[in-house]
Amino acid sequence: MQEFFVILFFIANIIYTSSYAVRDIMWLRILTIMGALCTFPYFFFQDTPLWSALFWQTMFITINAVNLVFLYLERRPVDLDDDQKRLHLLVFRSLKHKEMLKLLSLAQWQTIGKGEKIIEKGAVIDNLYLLFRGEAEVESDGKIRAHLRDGRFMGEMSYITGQPTSANIIATEDTRYLSWTKESLNKFFVKNSTIKNVMQAILGYDMAEKLKAHE
Questions:
Q1: Which helix (H) or strand (E) holds 103?
Q2: What's the whole-model pTM score?
Q3: What is the pLDDT averaged over residues 172-199?
Q4: Which residue has the higher pLDDT, 81 or 4?
Q5: Percent of the chain at pLDDT exceeding 70
Q6: Lesser CB count within 10 Å: N end or C end of the chain?
Q7: Phi and psi for 24 in degrees, rounded to 5?
């Protein structure tokens, strides 16, 4: 019987070694738990049970099991509603669904009627706006400078630079849009640098497309 426990102990070490060879952190934790469990009979069925070793193996198993649960919950697929699916296709394809939902949880959804101003010229805005459904025009000095459709950001230059806006943005039909405050986004990005980088790339692409449309 003792030989069996020794063999089991060697198997545990083989499993431990295999765990360091995998790249997926979830499988690393699973294999680590399996390896630790295989050491229990060896430590327990000594002439004098090795209680210290058993205690620490139990601690390792507990820590890895808790983190395994968190990993599972984090990777569990999420269902998007129709509006969220549309936003993902329009704007946030570079983000995972859960990342996008975190970002959207900070946004305020607003609806405005035809002819109403979303952004007024000369204002220093502290919000980032995203047109979700509808149409708006960029107007300055009585001239229409551009038309904005679904998936376009609004007032992003003023938001980024802190300078007053250079034009009015007026809804030309009933329009629904999202807005984020600078304060909430800055706090969020401190803890979510990956999403921050993707968001900066999305804004950069949006501004480049607007410039291209004016050429």
A1: helix 97-104
A2: 0.69
A3: 94
A4: 81
A5: 98
A6: C
A7: -80, 120
Neighbours of 120 (CB within 10 A): 14
- Among candidates 25, 26, 21, 60, which has minimal Cα distance to 43? 60
Distance CA 9, CA 7 (A): 5
- Please state the domain extents for the chain: 2-75, 82-214
How far is 213 from 215, CA to CA, in rounded Å? 6
Q: Using alpha carbons only, how large is the chain's radius of gyration in Å?
A: 27
In the DSSP assignment, the letter for residue 170 is E
pLDDT, tens digit, 9 for 90 and up, residues 10-61: 888 888 888 888 888 889 999 999 999 989 888 888 888 899 999 999 999 9
pLDDT tens digits, 108-143:
999 999 999 999 999 888 899 999 999 999 998 888
Cβ-contact 180, 107 below 8 angstroms: yes
DSSP run (H or E) holding 39: helix 25-44
Identify whether the C-beta of residue 100 lies closer than 8 Å to the C-beta of residue 180.
no
CATH 2.60.120.10 fits 82-214, yes or no: yes
3-state secondary structure of 166: coil
Beta strands in the chain (DSSP E): 108-112, 117-119, 127-133, 136-140, 143-148, 153-154, 168-171, 175-181
Q: Which amino acid is at 33?
A: I
Burial class (CB in 10 A: 0-12, 13-18, 19+), 75: exposed
Containing 117, the helix (H) or strand (E) segment is strand 117-119
